[in-house]
Design a protein that fits this description.
By secondary structure, this protein is an all-alpha fold. It folds into two domains: 112 residues, no CATH class; 109 residues, Cd81 Antigen, Extracellular Domain, Chain: A. The chain has nine helices and no strands. The chain binds 2-acetamido-2-deoxy-beta-D-glucopyranose (2 copies). The site of one 2-acetamido-2-deoxy-beta-D-glucopyranose (NAG) has 4 residues, from loops. GO terms for molecular function: enzyme binding.
Length: 246
């Protein structure tokens, strides 16, 4: 009896401030659609991908996308329907999940901070594989190009890491036409240049750091990429906490 009257009251009274309610609904809905998109991309990648990328990563990135998308789908679904119907149980599940996500991120960020050497090693192994297979897979190539352009860096430790790749290897008897080169994504942009000179990195591995600095960004991506990942992990965590508090 008591329970029933409680439920009735829950339906007639509005527990939740309407502004917070619409805010919650709007953002949950946004991320709900986003989660569907992530799952879609993951499934597409899983069906389409060649095997080289899967071998390069410890875990198939398509599977990570699908798992993250599905988890996000259920969390945002709780937020969406909970806000719409003022279902307290769903809203509690929603905020509990967000706090959980925040705590997991916090733990990862703290671990990443204390084990930053190990984190760097793990990413380093991945980037090394991506450099070795740069010419074997278009997605890896795009990814490495993106990282190098975005962070204005070249290789993992420095630009000479491109010798890990068969085509760019700087050994004297390498028959490749790209011997001692680095991909053009390492190159500094020339002001006013409209057509990208894809050969701007040719021969730079044979040059000293200071000479190479004129055509490319010779610094490795290690420090910059890890710093970026840590700062963004914190940001996503803060976002989750901000949504969970109301
Ligand atoms: C590039 O990094 C490697 C490994 O850390 C180091 O041995 C090498 O001397 C560096 N090369 C230059 C030109 O800085
Ligand atoms: C470049 O190729 C040579 C010969 O195949 C190999 O011995 C060397 O280890 C390669 N360089 C790097 C940095 O992997």
């Amino acid at each position: 009896m008591d329970r029933e009257s409680n439920l009735n009251r829950a339906e007639t009274f509005s527990f939740v401030n309407p502004w917070i309610r619409y805010f919650l609904f709007f953002f949950s809905f946004l991320f709900w659609v986003f989660s569907l998109l992530i799952v879609g991309i993951g499934v597409y990648a899983k069906v389409q991908k060649a095997t080289t990328v899967r071998d390069t990563f410890l875990v198939d990135p398509a599977v990570i996308l699908i798992v993250v998308g599905v988890v996000m789908f259920f969390i945002t679904f709780c937020g969406c329907i909970g806000a719409l119907r003022e279902n307290i149980r769903l809203l509690k599940t929603f905020s509990f999940s967000l706090v959980l996500v925040f705590l997991i991120q916090l733990v990862i960020a703290i671990l990443g901070f204390f084990y930053s050497d190990q984190t760097q090693d793990a990413f380093g192994k991945f980037v090394k594989k991506a450099i070795v297979h740069y010419r074997d897979d278009l997605d890896l190539q795009n990814l490495m190009d993106y990282i190098q352009k975005e962070f204005k860096c070249c290789g993992w430790n420095n630009y000479t890491d491109w010798s890990w790749n068969l085509y760019f290897n700087c050994t004297h008897d390498n028959p490749s036409s790209e011997r001692c080169a680095v991909p053009y994504s390492c190159c500094t942009a020339v002001p006013g240049e409209t057509v990208i000179n894809t050969m701007c990195g040719f021969g730079v591995q044979a040059q000293t750091y200071l000479d190479a600095d004129k055509a490319i960004y010779p610094v490795g991506c290690a420090d910059r990429a890890v710093m970026w990942i840590e700062s963004h992990l914190l940001m996503v965590g803060a976002l989750a906490l901000g949504l969970a508090l109301p």
